[in-house]
Design brief:
Helix content of chain B: 25-40%
CATH topology of the largest domain in chain B: Rossmann fold
Order of helices and strands of chain A: EHHHHHHHHHHHHHE
Mean pLDDT of chain B: 87
Oligomer: heterodimer
CATH architecture of chain A: Orthogonal Bundle
Strand order of the largest sheet of chain A: 1-2
Number of helices of chain B: 18
CATH topology of chain A: ABC transporter involved in vitamin B12 uptake, BtuC
CATH class of chain A: Mainly Alpha
Strand content of chain A: under 5%
Distance between the termini of chain B: 51 Å
Number of strands of chain B: 23
Largest interface: A-B, 29 and 47 residues
Distance between the termini of chain A: 23 Å
Shape of chain A: globular
Shape of chain B: globular
Number of domains of chain B: 2
Number of strands of chain A: 2
CATH architecture of the largest domain in chain B: 3-Layer(aba) Sandwich
Number of domains of chain A: 1
Low-confidence stretches of chain A: 355-363
Structural class of chain A: mainly alpha
Number of helices of chain A: 13
CATH superfamily of the largest domain in chain B: P-loop containing nucleotide triphosphate hydrolases
């Protein structure tokens, strides 16, 4: 008996929907084994990860808050990936957006600047994120530099630049030398949706971004261009679509969304600029984008799921002393299985029985 | 040569006088999922025989020879080699047993020399120097001249094929499989190849010759096995058959003759190319040099030539996938378009059908409606204010399906799920339904079944008779003779002056395809008269 991978005549839409679920299932099996090796009760650990956060209102809000940047960044990344442009540097664009937006917040601190402050911060953050993303895009188009490497390297530049600002010029003079800016003024803060809660306006913006992306990809010629350029570059050129223009466009949009997510995080849940504002949102969003099948609605669901792992990871650390790094291991294993299961969309397993097989002759 | 001598001694004289065939397949079956690519095929191949394997695309010819050459494992049935049942672990085992193969698509490294390429393809352990000497020896013996030190990119397609043949012969095969060897040759080069094949036959070797050129098979082959839909239809002596009777067996029915409708010619040229020269976009590409022609409405101009002589580059320059510096080099409907993008050229009324169906003409994993949008977005009312009119794209699919008899499993499947012929009908239909003023089409019926080919050729004739200018690039001279009003030949990036189809004999075209000029002969002829 032989197990062979056989190509399907047409891609299976059923598997396209089921494949992320298979991947999640396999990840949970692997994690169960890992928990057992760590000497923790796997059932309790899984409960802490996946069930406990869903049982109280505070955690549910926190999941939405964590999902907000993940979804916004992943939507932008999905546009890049669909167009075969590999933006790996969303983390850097997120940080640069946070820095640029914070600049207005820091400069208007304590003045009587009005309601224009927050909108201006959002716009500037998006613009800065887009510009920062254009560096690898232009290097790619003009010089053929690998955007994977350049976008990734710029993450560390952004990280250190932020670090310099909060330790140097922007440090809160009354902050006991902690590397942080002062708390932002109310006009420079993203408003909460529920008084005393955690949910903020950013989540609404994220939902709007999801809707806009769904319309762009499903209904417009621009969305079609993005999909063709990625799926069949030569056919796209034959269709009259310019791949280089789309690399620039998708990088800019994706950088803008990451930058926006950055300032919303800083001006929302965090409330000031400091190092470590992101637990790796820009990288986790890559997993979100693929787990969501590069589909806007799928990304929304995947974003909520990965947010759950962040919250669950924190709870598991508190309750069971499972290291927070296990969450990252979890996310890595998940991406691995998602990509592996994707081959089932175009291929299927088949058992070949030896009765039909020619037996090996003497010659 | 000693090896060759041994072969001669061991082979009995006279046809089929040996007591067993050299190679025999019994009930050979290959199954891909639910699809039977080969269904219980019996074939006998004798020493000293040129055996044709005939069939349309998808009939199962390639699958059969891949099984025989050890590239794939059959699902059922057996192969007997010199009377013994064998199971081949792979091509190298096939080669070591004496089975050689020359593929239609060459596997050569452009930047390596002839000798280096041959060395890479041999399994033996002899030194490079010995191997080079043997290479020269074999190529001389068989009249296949090759310079071992030249790099492959400098060679013509015919010369590249020689490398593949010599490489196969250096293993001293008892049985050689050739997959459509003349598809890339000029008529004269094909004649030379036939001499080599006759000689191999006389040495006692067997040859399996895959082709769909029936006249060629009648001329060369002793036996023909015809496959259709994965099954063997018949084994016969092709010399006792007519081309029409062979075609009937291949297709399983009569083939519709295409009919030209007398067209109304416009006097104004619709496509003009003025002294178009273009540097190649990639290494070893072909430079287009001083190409000029004029095409009026109602006219079909055929461009013949061996593949790789600049046809692809010309298509890219005409379509706007590559832009010319001087706008005046390409004029569409009286407007200088050399600098315009493919979308702008489409808006001027031009339409294009590239050679490669999957990946160039269509996005394989996208639906037909999306592929209708691919070329229709600019000028077919499929897009309003940036939004796609899905109903309009589906309507194009339905119209193409109806008009050109595109067979598919559902209304709007992925392009890759269609058979070659049906996808080509869709692509040609998609462009023709836009009522183009100018249609540039490359290899319109390459790898397409005879039924679909007839539909496509008829569509091109009808389009021309409706007043469009049609430019057809094809390697199939019979096809050009059937539909074109005049034929020009591309060689090394230059285009010959067009000949009226009635005057374009195979000999003349063959000379042009080989790079000779017709002029001295004509001049001599004039003096003689």
């Amino acid at each position: 008996m032989q197990l062979v991978l056989e190509k399907r005549a047409e891609r299976s839409n059923t598997i396209a929907l089921v494949s992320p679920l298979i991947a999640i299932g396999l990840t949970i099996v692997t994690m169960t084994i890992l928990f057992a090796i760590l000497g923790k009760n796997p059932l309790l650990a899984l409960h802490a990860y996946f069930i406990a956060p869903l049982t109280d209102g505070y955690s549910l809000q926190e999941i939405a808050v964590k999902a907000t940047p993940l979804v916004m960044i992943a939507i932008g990344l999905s546009l890049c990936y669909l167009a075969n442009a590999w933006n790996i540097g969303a983390e850097g664009q997120f940080l640069i957006g946070a820095v640029a937006g914070s600049w207005i917040a820091v400069k208007t601190q304590g003045t009587d600047a009005g309601a224009w402050v927050l909108p201006a911060m959002l716009v500037l953050a998006a613009a800065a994120g887009a510009l920062y993303a254009l560096i690898p895009a232009i290097c790619k188009v003009k010089f053929g530099a690998s955007e994977i490497l350049t976008s990734l390297m710029l993450v560390y530049v952004a990280d250190l630049f932020l670090d310099y600002l909060v330790r140097g010029p922007w440090r809160d003079p009354h902050g006991f030398n902690f590397p942080t800016t002062a708390e932002f003024d109310p006009v420079a803060t993203v408003p909460l949706l529920i008084e005393g809660g955690r949910l903020h306006l950013g989540s609404i913006i994220a939902l709007l971004v999801v809707a806009a992306a769904a319309i762009l990809l499903g209904r417009t010629i621009k969305g079609f261009e993005i999909r063709v350029v990625g799926a069949a570059p030569r056919a796209a050129r034959f269709g009259g679509f310019n791949a280089n223009q789309l690399i620039i466009l998708t990088f800019a949009v994706s950088g803008a969304l990451a930058g926006l997510a950055g300032i919303i995080e800083v001006a929302g849940p965090v409330g000031h600029l400091q190092p470590g504002i992101s637990p790796g949102y820009g990288f986790t969003a890559i997993i979100v984008a693929f787990l969501g099948r590069l589909n806007p609605l799928g990304i929304l669901i995947a974003g909520l799921f990965l947010a759950l792992t962040f919250i669950g990871g924190e709870q598991a650390q508190i309750a069971m002393k499972i290291p927070l790094d296990v969450t990252k291991v979890f996310q890595g294993i998940l991406l691995f299985y998602v990509l592996a299961c994707d081959s089932l969309i175009l291929y299927r397993f088949k058992l070949v029985f030896p009765s039909r097989q020619v037996t090996r002759g003497a010659g | 040569m000693q090896a060759h001598q041994r072969m001669l001694d061991s082979t009995p004289n006279g046809q089929h006088s040996g007591d067993s065939p050299l190679l025999r397949t019994i009930g050979l079956t290959k199954r891909y999922g639910d699809f039977l690519a080969n269904d219980s095929i019996d074939i006998d191949i004798w020493p000293r025989e040129i055996h044709a394997l005939l069939g349309e695309n998808g009939a199962g010819k390639s699958t059969l020879v891949k099984s025989i050459y050890g590239l794939i494992q059959p699902s059922a049935g057996e192969i007997r080699w010199q009377g013994q049942r064998i199971v081949l672990s792979g091509p190298s085992e096939a080669r070591s047993r004496g089975i050689g193969m020359v593929f239609q698509h060459f596997s050569l490294f452009d930047n390596l020399t002839v000798a280096e390429n041959v060395a890479l393809g041999l399994d033996g352990k002899e030194s490079f120097k010995d191997m080079s000497a043997r290479l020269e020896q074999v190529s001389k013996t068989y009249g296949l001249p090759l310079d071992p030190k030249r790099e492959v990119w400098q060679l013509s397609v015919g010369e590249r094929q020689r490398i593949e043949i010599v490489r196969a012969l250096m293993q001293d095969p008892k049985f050689l499989i050739l997959d459509e060897p003349t598809a890339v040759l000029t008529p004269q080069e094909a004649d030379q190849l036939f001499i080599v094949l006759e000689r191999l036959k006389a040495e006692g070797r067997a040859i399996l010759y895959i082709s769909h050129k029936l006249e060629e098979v009648k001329r060369l082959c002793d036996t023909a096995t015809i496959l259709r839909g994965g099954r063997k239809v018949e084994t016969c002596n092709p010399r006792l058959e007519t081309a029409a009777s062979l075609a009937r067996m291949m297709v399983g029915g009569e083939i519709k003759e295409v009919k030209a409708v007398s067209g109304r010619k416009t006097t104004v040229p619709r496509l003009v190319v003025n002294d178009l020269s273009l540097a190649p976009s990639e290494a070893h590409g072909v430079r287009l040099e001083h190409i000029s022609f004029e095409l009026k409405g109602g006219e079909i101009l055929g461009i013949a030539g061996v593949a790789g002589n600049g046809q692809e580059e010309l298509f890219a320059a005409l379509s706007g996938e590559r832009l010319a510096k001087d706008p005046g080099t390409v004029v569409i409907e009286g407007i200088a378009a050399g600098h315009l993008s493919i979308t702008q050229r489409r808006k001027l009324g031009a339409a294009f059908v590239p050679e490669e169906r999957l990946g160039h003409g269509t996005a394989p994993r996208m639906r037909l409606s999306e592929n209708a949008l691919l070329t229709g977005h600019a000028a077919s009312g499929m897009v309003h204010h940036g939004f796609i009119d899905t109903a309009a794209t589906l309507k194009t699919v339905d119209r193409a399906t109806e008009t050109f008899d595109v067979r598919k499993a559902k209304r709007d499947p992925e392009a890759a799920s269609l058979s070659g012929g049906n996808l080509q009908k869709f692509i040609v239909g998609r462009e023709i339904l836009r009522n183009p003023a100018v249609l540039v089409v490359s290899q319109p019926t390459w790898g397409v079944d005879a039924g679909a080919a007839a539909v496509i050729r008829q569509a091109l004739l009808d389009l021309a008779s409706a007043g469009a200018a049609v430019l057809v690039t094809s390697q199939d001279l019979d096809e050009l003779a059937e539909i074109a009003d005049s034929i020009a030949v591309m060689f090394h990036g230059r285009l010959s002056a067009p000949l009226a189809t009635s005057e374009a004999t195979r000999e003349k075209l063959g000379l042009l395809m080989g790079g000779s000029s017709l002029e001295p002969k004509e001049a001599a002829h004039a003096i003689g008269a």
